[in-house]
Amino acid sequence: MIELKDVTVFYPQAKEAALKNVNLTFERGEFICVLGPSGAGKSTMIRTINALQPVSEGKVLINGEDLSKLSENKRRQWRSRTGMIFQHFHLIPRLTVEQNILTGLFGKRNAISNILGLFNASEIQKANEVLRQVGLEQMTDRRVEWLSGGQKQRVGVARALMQEPEVFLGDEPVASLDPSISRSIFQLLKNIHENEDLITLINVHDVFLAKSFATRVIGLSDGKVVFDNSPETLSAENLETIYGSTPQD
Ligand SMILES: Nc1ncnc2c1ncn2[C@@H]1O[C@H](COP(=O)(O)OP(=O)(O)OP(=O)(O)O)[C@@H](O)[C@H]1O
Question: Taking every annotated instance into account, which residue ranges of this chain make up the domain ABC transporter (predicted)?
């Protein structure tokens, strides 16, 4: 369980807080889509959850433990249990699909094995299983730079899966993809979410995707939670509150 309790985040020199007194609880099984205009605080919320951004006020509790009070070692362990999926994939283009997804193990291994790129048979076997899960079993040895955007994001998802995560965090994971590919990536995330019993939290601009896949939608505006309910209840009025006007798509 992840709890944000009265979380406020100020960036240095910023006039206003990026998150303002946010109170939210996320539990296993929830597939949450976060909507909000640019600058609403969506990425900041993700960074507070995976311990990349300290909170200025309030606290983030992970299974009851205050994230800011964890030892560096435990914080690293938590980060290795949060699988991140990014808009621009954050892959290493010249490496193969398999080499990229094996980097998902780096948080769990010692630095020397990582530097030497030494992986044992069970790690390679796990990589192959994960590649099957994301439908890339034919592409193991292909260089990532030769893949399409949708295939690259499948590699991104596979790398996150290698971490055996408790949580999937997506920061606009389909913003660079066309609508049908976006839908297939959401479907993949939903399938994995259900198989692995995760907490999945995804920032997304596309209201239709949020409505189709989320079990819960959160609307952020100006650093505040202005909507938190099931997708079926999200009305045009709610969207106006979130975006300041009704989005066209
Ligand atoms: N590193 C930073 N330093 C200072 N201000 C920042 C920093 N990162 C974000 N901000 C500010 O914090 C606020 C929230 O930004 P954030 O990136 O969390 O919003 P967002 O909803 O993810 O936006 P987008 O959809 O454009 O990615 C914005 O006003 C932004 O300018």
Answer: 2-247
Q: What is the pLDDT of residues 143-187, one digit of tens each?
A: 999 999 999 999 999 999 999 999 999 999 999 999 999 999 999
User: Nearest C-alpha to atom 26 of ligand 1 is from which residue?
Assistant: 38
Supply the residue whose CA is at minimum distance from atom 7 of ligand 1.
11
Q: Which residues pair with 34 in a beta bridge?
A: 203, 218
CB 35 within 8 A of CB 204: yes
Structure confidence at residue 113 (pLDDT): 61
Q: What is the pLDDT of residues 112-149, one digit of tens each?
A: 666 666 677 888 899 999 999 999 999 999 999 999 99
Taking Cα atoms as reference points, which of 201, 235, 156, 243 lies closest to residue 60? 201
Domain spans of the chain? 89-164
CB 139 within 8 A of CB 97: yes
